[in-house]
Amino acid sequence: MSYVKPAQLVGHMLDAGAAKMQMSARDTLIRAFMGAALLTIGAAFAVTIATQTGQPLLGAVLFPVGFVILYLFGYDLLTGVFTLGPLAVLARRPGATVPAMLRNWGLVFLGNLCGAILVAVLMAAVFTYGFSAEPNEVGRALGEIGHSRTVGYADHGLAGMLTLFIRGMLCNWLVSTGVVLAMASNTVGGKVIAMWLPIMLFFYMGFEHSIVNMFLFPSGLLMGGEFTLWDYLIWNEIPTVVGNLVGGLLFVGLPLYLTHGGSSVRQPAEEPRSVMV
Q: What is the pLDDT of residue 2?
């Protein structure tokens, strides 16, 4: 059957979370670098489509292409390991310890950051003809995104910070849903559909994804956006990372672990699957 039932699915999630902690630093960094690079190229594509057509929904519909490609290649995103790693630790999978989990998170964060910044620089060069001209229409849109989603939150003070955190939680609720649902299918088509739906939803709703933001805001700064690196870190990236962690674990990982764990919590699944997002 192409459908993996929830009880077996939890076993695959635990196996995947534990396996990530056993990867070498080199492999973890490469997979994280490429994962962020592909995801953020998809983000640049979506912003381009939305800007040139004036149809944000169309950009959201097409955005998941980058997520799907990186997942099928077996690459990593911080939002995924935030959800899978803690479950493996809770289930006491061999090699799954808190220090190993924190090491994995740190390496994935670093790899994601480098991959996203590379794409930001490359796309900025495209949007400015190698930095020899003013940003084109898409470049100006990126600058405005950076301003509205940093200074825009800061203008509301603590209420803005709360909104940012909640958007980060909602984002990884959906993104991690896509990660886990892809494990519920044994076919490429099933995986693609399962990933596409929640990823499209988070992007259109304007929720905050820490890795996408590693591209959007450096791009905005390069495009002359009216905000600072400090604005980006305090009024977007840091609260978004925390919100992503809480949302993925609280609304996706733990409910499945607690209600469908059963025997899969105590022993590896019969057919371990690799999940890298």
A: 86
